[in-house]
Amino acid sequence: MKILIESNVRLFVDIEGISLAPDKSVMREKPTLILLHGGPGYDHSSFKPAFSQLSDIVQIVYYDHRGHGRSDSRPIKELTLDILADDIVKLCDTLGIIKPIVLGQSFGGFVAQRYIERHPNHPLKVILSSTSHNFGLDRKLAKFEQLGGLEARIVAEKFWTNPNELTYNAYQVLCRPFYSAVISTNNQSSLRSTFKSKILFKWINGEYQNMSLLSGLSRAQCAVLVLAGELDPVCPIDDSRDIVKALPEQFVQFEEFQNCGHGVWRDKPNKAFVRIRKFILED
Fold this sequence. Notes:
Layout: E1 2-6, E2 9-16, E3 20-23, E4 26-29, E5 32-36, E6 59-63, H1 81-95, E7 101-105, H2 107-118, E8 125-129, H3 137-161, H4 165-174, H5 188-192, H6 197-205, E9 223-229, H7 237-246, E10 252-257, H8 264-267, H9 269-281
Parallel strand pairs: 5-6, 5-7, 7-8, 8-9, 9-10
Antiparallel strand pairs: 1-2, 2-6, 3-4
Helix pairs in contact: 1-2, 3-4
């Protein structure tokens, strides 16, 4: 369904699980988990069906960022981190959600970090998964070279410095398989996803170039779990370590996953979801 969050702005939203669960003689409210997908230019489909297993402890809200996927098209100039972070609050206000748990994957993690900065008292908890705090091209290229040799580094550099259909297609063939340590040629979620290349190319040449999120993380007022894979080439694990250092010590938790790439639940789903579940259930 599409939800109107402001005049002329409708987001595609899918809700899984009940919010009120019977517990003997009472009804207990489960927390709401809001999932922020990666990209930009993609949609929420990469979370399905894996995250359904959490519906016994949370109500899950999947949605496509403004202008993405099945949400209404919007001018690319609106697709800034500030606006996308504010959309989380607007969506919650529209749906009547108070104190959500917000999980941001990759680009969704960029949005979640800006959300922490702009709305520190809004979330109950935040999960930052396989994400970065800046463009960090040098770290990206070094990791691609480590995983795929000089050819992978060259192809990655061509794409990240000159994003277009030609460089993107070469990147998808040679570099994208290194995103995951286990699933390379059989990642069906990427086939299901809608993709708007203009959003991605504009983002790389635009806000991403000067993105700097570390300073805003000091404003966090809730528990934040950072998940990272040691083999992640696009959001290298050292970026997550920087994020951990920037968050208030009393709130941050950090889990490094060995032999995992981008999106640790893809490579080690059992371990990843046990950790996420534990974080959700903690007081």
